């Protein structure tokens, strides 16, 4: 008798996208020195018991925060992104963008989702997007914040998923 095994379920291309484990993420921007990153923040979480957080301790009127990880994508495949974002206060001053970048991350190939400051709240909000890989190659998945306003704020991200469409 012929048995058909089910196709393997596509898995999250992101290592530690739920921030419940270890590894995966590299901090890219530490300036202006008042930024504190955590990839196992237990104070806030959407799923599990932990999230990522970027805390800003006040001072500079304009700054950026950025972390990423390498991903290898296959030509012609569509990758769906979903993720959750929260801030310590409404309209906190930073916009949070999730994007696919070149292998170094320095070039934004496609913004998957952007949550403007006006849309950030002290509650979790979902965002989604997609990317169709032009070639089988090394890329980066990036989380980048562009900020204005000098007040102390904390931003949270959780359950980041990048998964090939079946
Ligand atoms: Ca989590």
UniProtKB/TrEMBL annotation:
Swiss-Prot/TrEMBL keywords: Hydrolase
InterPro entries per the UniProt record, alphabetical: CenC_carb-bd (IPR003305), Galactose-bd-like_sf (IPR008979)
Domain CBM-cenC: 12-142
Chain segments annotated as coiled-coil in the UniProt record: none
Pfam families in the cross-refs: CBM_4_9 (PF02018)
Keyword Hydrolase: yes
Molecular functions (GO terms): hydrolase activity, acting on glycosyl bonds
Protein name: CBM-cenC domain-containing protein
Organism for this UniProt entry: Podospora didyma
Source lineage: Eukaryota, Fungi, Dikarya, Ascomycota, Pezizomycotina
């Amino acid at each position: 008798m012929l048995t058909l095994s089910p196709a393997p379920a596509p898995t999250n291309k992101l290592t530690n996208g739920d921030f419940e484990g270890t590894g995966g993420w590299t901090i890219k921007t530490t300036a202006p020195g008042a930024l504190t990153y955590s990839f196992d923040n237990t104070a806030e979480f959407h799923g599990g018991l932990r999230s990522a957080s970027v805390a800003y301790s006040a001072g500079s009127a304009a700054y950026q925060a950025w972390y990423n990880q390498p991903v290898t994508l296959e030509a012609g495949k569509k990758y769906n992104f979903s993720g959750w974002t929260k801030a310590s206060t409404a309209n906190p001053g930073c916009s949070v963008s999730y994007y696919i970048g070149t292998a170094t991350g320095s070039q934004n190939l496609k913004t998957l989702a952007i949550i403007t400051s006006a849309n950030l709240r002290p509650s979790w909000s979902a965002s989604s997007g997609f990317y169709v890989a032009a070639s089988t190659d090394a890329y980066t998945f990036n989380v980048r914040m562009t900020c204005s306003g000098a007040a102390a704020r904390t931003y949270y991200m959780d359950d980041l998923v990048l998964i090939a469409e079946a």
